[in-house]
C-alpha cells in the first residue's frame, strides 16, 4: 500500500513534470536561437488556449480552429520579433527580458479584451480519469489524460529533435544559436531563421496551452504556468531541450513527493515555492544548470 | 536664460560637491519641499492626501529601493513586494510585541528584518546573474508570501491572515488624519531619499556601479564582490521594508499578505524602468507616472464613452490598462532606456543653452 502510493505520487509528479517541460520548451527554443529570455511565453500559452477555446465555442470546427489559432500565434510571434525584439538588438539581455515582461502585460490585456475574462472549459476527447486496468491490478491511479499529455510531449520533442538535427532549416537554426555573426557570414538569412523560431515557439505554446487548458480550464491562472516552468529552466539550463525535459521531470517528481511527504510538517501548500528552492540549491552546485553552456567571463 | 550657472563661483570642496551645484536647482528644491510640507497639507483634501500623494510617496520609496539594487548595482529582482511584506508584517509585530519601542524604531527594525531576508535571498547572486538571478528572486516572492500566510505568528493568529496596523503615536502625538500621515510619510521619504542620494555618491555607490557595469572587472580592481552584492541586497530590501511598513501603517491600515503579490513587484519594476534606471529622481517620476496613469486612462475612456455614446465596461478599462502599461514599458525600453530621468536631464541641458543654442 505504502509503496504503491509512493509510485502513484511519483508517476503523477513525473507526468505533471512533462507538462512543465512543454512550457519550458517554448522558453528554450527562443533562448537558443536569439538569446532572449522570453517571459511572455506564459502569456502566449494563455493567448493560444483562449483563442482556440473561444473559436470552438463559437461553433468552429475543431481542426479549422486549430489551424486558425496556429496561424494567429505564428503571426503574433513574428510580430513580436519585428516590433519588440528587433529594435532592441544588441541591448543587454536584461533589457530584453524586461521588454518581454512588458509584452506579457500587453498579451494578457489583449487576450482578455478580445475574448472576455470568464473561464472556459476545454475538452479534447480524452477523459481525465484514472486508467482502469492499472487501478484494478495494482491499485495505482494514473490519469489517462496525463499519459496522453506525456505522449504528446514526447512526440513533440522527437519531432523537434529530428527537425533540429536532420533538416536544412534545423542546421541553420543550430548555426544561428551557436554564433549569430558566423551564421550571417556563411550566408544564413538571420531574419527568416528568427521568424521560423518564433513560429515554432508559437506552435509549442499552442500545444502547451491546449493540454494545460484541459487540465486546469482556460482562465487567467494559465499565465502562472510560466512561473512553474522557470525552475525547470534553472535546473535544465536555458539552452538545452533535453535539459527542459529532464528538469521538468525532476521538478514535477520532487514537487509532488515533497508536497505529500514533507508538506504536512509545514502545514501544506509548499508546492508554490518548493520547486524554486530545489532549483536554487541546484544552482549553487551548477550555476549554468544541468546542460546549460558554461559561461566564461572575460574582462 | 534664467537657468545657468554663470557667475556662481565655488571656493571650497564642499561647495563643489554639493548635490545641486547650481543655485537655481537649490532654490527650486527648497521651494518644492516647502510646497510639499506646508502648502499641500493645507490645500489637499482627504482624497488627494490619503489616496494619491501618500501611496505615491510610498511607492516612490519602494522604487528607490529597487533602483538601488537594479539600477545601481545591476541585480534584477522580482521580489520587491515580498520585501515590502516583510517590512509591513514585522513592523506590525514589533509594535504589537514590544510596544515600548515606538513606531519609528519598529519601522527601522522591520526594515532590518527585510534586509536580512534580502541578504538570504541575495546569496545566489554570488553564483548566478542576469535572469537566472531574476528567477531566483521569484523564489523569495513565493516563499515569503507562503510563510506569512502559513504561520499565524506573523499576523498575530488572526483567522483571515489580515493585520490591522496600530495607531501611529510618536512621543504622545497621534498621527490619525490623512494629512498627518502624509506628513509622516513625506518626512521619512525625504530623509531616506537624501541618504540614498549621498550613499550612491560615496564609495559604496561607486562600487555598486562598478559591479553593475562588469562584475568580473570590478572584482579584478579589488572590489569585494560578496560584500558589495550582499550590501546592495541589504540596502535595497531595507528601503523596500520601510516602504512596506509605511504602506501598511500610513496608507492601507489593514493589509493581507496577498496585497504584496508578484503584480506589485512588477508594478515597482515598471516604475523604475519608466522613471529611469539608476536615478533617484527617476524613482519618483516613475512612481508618479504609474500612480497617475490609471486615473488619466479612466478619464480618457469615460471621455470617449461620452463623446461616442458607447458603453465601456470596467473590465475593458482594466485590460486597456494592462495593454498600455506593457506597451509603455516596451516603448520606453526601445526609445528611452533611461526613462523620464534622462528626459529631464536633456531638458535641463537644453534649458542652459536656451535661447541661444550655440
Descriptive report:
The complex is a heterodimer of chains A (299) and B (358). With 299 residues, chain A is mainly alpha-helical. Chain A has helices spanning 2-34, 41-57, 62-85, 93-115, 132-137, 144-166, 168-178, 180-185, 190-216, 225-236, 241-261, 263-266, 271-285. The radius of gyration of chain A is 20 Å and the shape is globular. In chain A, 45% of the residues are buried. Chain B has one domain (47-353): ABC transporter involved in vitamin B12 uptake, BtuC, CATH 1.10.3470. Chain B has helices at 13-16, 23-43, 46-72, 80-97, 103-122, 130-150, 178-200, 203-213, 215-220, 225-252, 262-275, 280-308, 314-335, 339-353; strands at residues 163-164, 168-170, 173-175, 254-255. The model of chain B has no long low-confidence stretch (mean pLDDT 88). The interface between A and B is large, with 48 and 45 residues.
Please describe the topology of this protein:
The complex is a heterodimer of chains A (299) and B (358).
Chain A: H1 2-34, H2 41-57, H3 62-85, H4 93-115, H5 132-137, H6 144-166, H7 168-178, H8 180-185, H9 190-216, H10 225-236, H11 241-261, H12 263-266, H13 271-285
Helix pairs in contact in A: 1-6, 1-7, 1-9, 1-10, 1-11, 2-3, 2-4, 2-9, 3-9, 6-7, 7-9, 10-11, 10-13, 11-13
Chain B: H1 13-16, H2 23-43, H3 46-72, H4 80-97, H5 103-122, H6 130-150, E1 163-164, E2 168-170, E3 173-175, H7 178-200, H8 203-213, H9 215-220, H10 225-252, E4 254-255, H11 262-275, H12 280-308, H13 314-335, H14 339-353
Antiparallel strand pairs in B: 1-4, 2-3
Helix pairs in contact in B: 2-7, 3-7, 3-8, 3-10, 3-11, 3-12, 4-5, 4-6, 4-10, 5-6, 5-10, 7-10, 8-10, 11-12, 12-13, 12-14
